[in-house]
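Encode chain A's predicted structure.
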Amino acid sequence: MPTGAPDTPALRRILRLLFSEEEAALAARLPSIVAVDRLARDLGRDPVDLHAQLTSMAQRGLVLDLEHRGERWVALAPVVIGFFEFTFMRVRDDAPMEELAELFDEYLFTDDEHRLAHAVFAGSVQVGRSLVREEALPARPPTEVLAWERATSIVADARTVAVSACPCRTHAGLLDRACDAPVRTCLSFDGAAEALLRADLAEPISNDEGLEILASAKAAGLAQTADNVKERIAYLCNCCGCCCGMMQAIRDAGLHDAIVSSNWVARIDPDQCRGCRDGCVTACPATAIERRDSQGQGRRAYWAVLDAERCLGCGVCVDRCRFEALDLVPREQRPYTPDSTLDRMIAMAVERGKLGDLLLDTLDGAGPVAVARLLQHLERSSLGTALRAIEPLRSVFLRGLLAAVHRGAARVPAP
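Encoded structure for chain A:
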């Protein structure tokens, strides 16, 4: 996968609790994604036995399986987004949930260096992106809001919809520090929903039920975070600032790009702002707004000040303000949103120096389309970024490609 998982004693204890020795040996042989029948041939395993073992692992959230063109594929779940979420999407009787909650808390949130957060979220391309609250937009938005930007369209247009317990609030609840926001809020769609349903990690619901859950989450002041792609969106989270792991990466680790912002940004009208204590400042899940002394510049002693770089453009603050002092305006520069999951994985791998892992694992056997997407992304990247991405591969072909693309702009050094 295009992110890493720092090795710590807490992670090793988590893995020992989740995996048997036999399952750990199998997991160590899994590439990022592979057809199960091909894996059986490579390992010399009986396909029926291997399918059964992987089904058991999928039911415990250790691997993710999916059907593609009549063939079953399986991927080892990363830590985030992966077996942390799958572990806490339900409270299980067959696992030491309180102990796991404490270990995950140690691994994810109490590390002073925030090593996992930096491994997963240190970059501009992320797994999640903020969705703008449509109700907070102007009656006639100055720019078009596309279907993949609208939470209601994502839910209404899905072929299959499922709901799970929010893993972040379930995890916080096991530690006796959950907020009072609703828990049955984690929505998944189509292939991802079907995989979670097969693993008994979600329950099927109708599109209308999904829209009702979305409306209730908005009423509770939750922000909407979706799969950072335009096509085949897999999930939609309804996030609070206190329990959500991605929000905590923003708030506590200072990784302001841990969630990609929407194409909108909040704007505060200083003449309307009352500088209250319980409005936008407390509503913002990313702590992008603070209450400051106006230093005599405003009509009141205090006013709200927005950090536009930190703003997710979710629109929660607009809904919370009683004085109509906030609105949303289009961002001057729209964030990059990959077309597909494959495009996102390639972009993240290039950015994080994991291109070699992606080529050897995920793209192995994926065909010319995947390789073509990789080459297209390298062509669009800056020369420095592309060179850093391919340097560990020592590929004469890729260096030749970059030399052709950037000829005249810079000289590509020989390997």
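The mean pLDDT is 84.
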